[in-house]
Write a structure and sequence with these properties.
Layout: H1 2-21, E1 27-33, E2 37-38, E3 43-52, E4 58-66, E5 75-82, E6 87-89, E7 92-95, E8 100-103, E9 106-112, E10 119-124, E11 129-132, E12 143-145, H2 155-159, E13 164-171, H3 183-189, E14 193-199, E15 205-209, H4 223-242, E16 247-251, E17 253-254, E18 263-268, H5 271-283, E19 287-288, H6 292-300, E20 308-313, H7 321-327, E21 332-337, E22 351-355
Parallel strand pairs: 2-11, 15-16, 15-20, 20-21, 21-22
Antiparallel strand pairs: 1-3, 3-6, 3-7, 4-5, 4-9, 8-11, 9-10, 12-22, 13-14, 16-18, 17-19
Helix pairs in contact: 4-5
Length: 361
C-alpha cells in the first residue's frame, strides 16, 4: 500500500509539472469590442476570448485585464479552469468617462499548478483602440453673445443675415427703390448710385478649431478650455448639418498617435461627413501643427469657397488679435472663444460668442 501511495504521489507530481510546463503552450488570448466609437457613458461590450489548443488542461488560470483610469473600471479579474481544446468566450461591460483615443493597457495571465507550488505570469497586449466622442450638447447651452446676455444663438443668422449680398454699386435709373441708394458712393461721385446685389448661391460654412491656448503651445496649455472648444465644435457642426447648411471642418490640432498634422475638409452635407468630423474631434489631442496666424493665412487662399468661417478657440492670445481682425475683412467671421481674453480688441466686423462658463467665473 505504501508503494502504491508513493507511486500515486509521484504520478501526481509528474502530472502537475507537465501541466504547468505546457500550460502556456498553444494558449491564445484576445479581447474584442462590439464597435470602435462610443459616446461618453455609452456601454462598451468587451468580449475576452481564451482558447486552449492542446490536449492538456490548464487547472488554474487567473486573468486580470487593465483598462486604464479613463473608463468606469480600471481593471477586471476572473478565474478559469480551461479544459483541453476548449474555447471560452466571456462578456464584460464598461463605459468611457473621458473623450479621447484610448488603448486598453493590457492583461496579465497568471497560471498556478495543481499543488500550488509554482506560478507563471504572462503579459498580453490587448491591442484594441476605442474612440470616445466629445460630450454631446445643444449649442445654445454652450455659448452666448459676447456683447449681450440676451438673444438666441442661431447658425442660420451666421449664414443668412440678408438673402442678398452686395456686389458693388451702379448708376441709379429711377426704377430702383430709394432705400437701395448707396449714399457714401453717391456723395463721392456726385451722382446717385445704388447698391448692386448678388444672390447668395453658396450658403456654406467652414468650422475651424484652433487648439492653441498658449505660446509655446506645450507650455501651460489651458486643457479645460481646449476640451470645451472641442465640445463646442461638435455642437456647431451638428447644428449646421441640422439646418442643411453645408459645413467643412479644419483644425491645427491633431493626435500624434494617428496623425502627422492638422486636417481640412471642404463643405458638404453628407451624414458621413459629420461622422468623420466627430470622430476627428474624439481623437483630437493637444498637439498643434501650426500657429493660428499661419492657419488663417492658409484658410484665406480658399476663402471664396464658403460664405462664413466659424473660428472656435480655447482663448484669444495677444498674438491672435491682429490676424483675426485682418481675416475678418475678407468675409463673414464668427468667433467663439471659451475664455474672454482679448475679446474687446476684436473688430466689430466679427460676430463674437463666449462660453457660458464665463457667467460662473
Amino acid at each position: 500500500m505504501l508503494w502504491a501511495f508513493f507511486g500515486m504521489l509521484i504520478a501526481i507530481i509528474v502530472l502537475n509539472e507537465v501541466l504547468f510546463y505546457y500550460g502556456d503552450k498553444k494558449l491564445s488570448y484576445g479581447v474584442q469590442t462590439d464597435k470602435n466609437v462610443y459616446e461618453i457613458g455609452e456601454e462598451i461590450t468587451l468580449t475576452p476570448v481564451i482558447e486552449n489548443r492542446k490536449i492538456l488542461s490548464i487547472p488554474f488560470l487567473n486573468v486580470t485585464e487593465y483598462y486604464g483610469e479613463k473608463f468606469s473600471e480600471s481593471q477586471n479579474t476572473y478565474h478559469l479552469f480551461v479544459m483541453p481544446l476548449q474555447r471560452i468566450t466571456l462578456e464584460h461591460k464598461i463605459y468611457g468617462k473621458k473623450r479621447g483615443l484610448h488603448t486598453f493597457d493590457g492583461a496579465q495571465l497568471k497560471m498556478t499548478d495543481l499543488l500550488g507550488f509554482h506560478n507563471k505570469f504572462l503579459e498580453k497586449a490587448i491591442n484594441q483602440e476605442v474612440v470616445i466622442l466629445p460630450r454631446k450638447e445643444e449649442l445654445r447651452e454652450l455659448i452666448l453673445p459676447f456683447d449681450s446676455l440676451h438673444g438666441a444663438v442661431s447658425v442660420k443668422r451666421w449664414i443668412v443675415d440678408d438673402p442678398l449680398m452686395l456686389r458693388g454699386v451702379r448708376e441709379y435709373t429711377g426704377r430702383e427703390s430709394q432705400r437701395y441708394i448707396h449714399w457714401p458712393s453717391s456723395l463721392k461721385h456726385q451722382r446717385l448710385l445704388v447698391k448692386q446685389f448678388d444672390f447668395t448661391a453658396d450658403k456654406s460654412a467652414m468650422v475651424f478649431l484652433s487648439t492653441e491656448s498658449s505660446r509655446p503651445y506645450w507650455k501651460d496649455p489651458d486643457v479645460q478650455a481646449l476640451e470645451e472648444s472641442i465640445i463646442t465644435a461638435r455642437a456647431v457642426l451638428e447644428e449646421l448639418m441640422k439646418e442643411k447648411i453645408p459645413a467643412g471642418f479644419s483644425s491645427n490640432g491633431y493626435n500624434a498617435k494617428t496623425d502627422n498634422g492638422g486636417v481640412s475638409f471642404p463643405p458638404g452635407l453628407s451624414p458621413k461627413n459629420l461622422e468623420k468630423y466627430t470622430m476627428l474631434l474624439g481623437k483630437m489631442g493637444t498637439m498643434v501643427s501650426d500657429s493660428l496666424e499661419n492657419s488663417l493665412k492658409k484658410l484665406s487662399r480658399n476663402r471664396s469657397s464658403f460664405q462664413v468661417v466659424v473660428l472656435i478657440v480655447p482663448k484669444v492670445l495677444k498674438e491672435h488679435v491682429l490676424p483675426i481682425n485682418e481675416f475678418s475683412k475678407n468675409g463673414k467671421l464668427v468667433l467663439i472663444a471659451m475664455r474672454e481674453d482679448h475679446l474687446t480688441e476684436i473688430s466689430r466686423n466679427v460676430r463674437i460668442y463666449k462660453g457660458r462658463d464665463f457667467l460662473c467665473s
